[in-house]
Amino acid sequence: MAHNDTATGTPAGDTGNTRFILLISLVATIGGFLFGFDSGVINGTVDGLQAAFRSDSVGTGFNVASMLLGCAFGAFFAGRLADLYGRRALLIVAAAFFIVSAWGSGVATSSLEFVVYRVLGGLAVGAASVMSPAYISEVSAAHYRGRLATVQQIAIIGGLFAAFLSNYLLAKFAGASTQPLWGGHEAWRWMFWMEMAPAALFLVALLFIPESPRFLVVKARNAQALGVLVRLYGPTAGAAKLGEIEASLARDHHRPRLSDLVSRATGRLRPIVWVGIGLATFQQLVGINVVFYYGAVLWQAVGFSESDALLINVLSGALSIGACLLTVVLIDRIGRKPLLWVGSLGMAVTLGLVTVAFATGSLDARGTLQLSDSMGVLALVAANVYVVFFNLSWGPVMWVMLGEMFPNQIRGSGLAVAGLFQWGANFAITITFPVMLAGVGLAATYGFYAASAFVSIFFVLRYVHETKGRELEQMEG
């Protein structure tokens, strides 16, 4: 009988095919790259959308946030559909949606047409946001699962960075985002079309990776599951892992369903689901996507030119990647919970400093917020340090935890509900920012985000439990 090696979580004698696991995980993270690109590309197109569709602040907010409606539904239904048809199958559908959305967003001639294509892209982003980390968690061993799942956040930030850099270069070549570029089409339209290349790569690459072995066991396709597990972990460890998965599912009924989220003992929603909802919601209430979606608008609102504002976005993207790389080193060493509460504390302080800086400003005749040189530097530095704290903690760790914290029986359903709340909160924050900017100003808006970060410290300390080093079959809810 094989004995377990406590350092690796796999039976002694099996080293597993780490290279194969890394390769298929990287394929899954292309979904994260597209998630980031599709989210960030809108940042440089706001002026073009306003000019092309003649929209006011509310209309612009809806054009920007419309994708998030699709994200909410995509995340919710992807979790459930993945339990029926598989993680890989849903990612293939998402890749096709990414291609169609990128093309359509660039050719749109009206707000309605644009919104339809952006919602379609949102369905793809929502599906990728929950299925990519779930797939990575389900093919990885516990001792390096956090590091591989964190690569998903690096891919997201890489996508954001690529979108910011692409937007900056296209606008620079054209002279402005609203000016014609190649083929007589405005630069902002080309910003969307740039996404078609990585989306096509994602679609092709997905055809060559296996389905999640845990999904195959749920579907009673145990021979296929064993074949995948042997490729992942080796013969001995693969057979042992198959037995563990079968045992974990045997403790409950075989086919997962949404009602599993309700405890049969209490008749109430399982505590682990509430924790997932809290993690998903707080990640958005701190206002990170205001920086991602409206960064150019934000920095122009405090006096920077469009070119400088787009360049600041590139800087923020580079800092974000660096922070995520540090998380890769730390997450399986110090754990998930310490990173979350340190991140919450750092974001509360830096957002508070941004709020103070914006509160000192005054409006000029055009309604642009004017800051003193010292306050402008404070706002710029604090905002970028805030981005670093987010991407060191809540950015990657929230997705890692959602992908691993739920028991096998409710992983798809738990991800569906948490994803719905995550994207719902994202939509609410995004669509209200232009209105709050025009109504109460930047200081009050960022004051709300700072308060949310402060409250999240106590949420983490009280309700979040560590998952570092635990096998998925050991998760309880």
UniProtKB/TrEMBL annotation:
GO terms for cellular component: plasma membrane. It is a multi-pass membrane protein. The keyword Transmembrane applies. The chain crosses the membrane at residues 20-37, 57-77, 89-109, 115-136, 148-170, 190-209, 272-297, 309-331, 338-359, 379-402, 414-440, 446-464. It is found in: Cell membrane. Keywords: Cell membrane, Membrane, Sugar transport, Transmembrane, Transmembrane helix, Transport. GO terms for molecular function: transmembrane transporter activity. It holds the Pfam family Sugar_tr. It catalyses: D-xylose(in) + H(+)(in) = D-xylose(out) + H(+)(out). Residues 24-468 form the Major facilitator superfamily (MFS) profile domain. This is D-xylose-proton symporter. Belongs to the major facilitator superfamily. Sugar transporter (TC 2.A.1.1) family. The keyword Cell wall biogenesis/degradation does not apply.
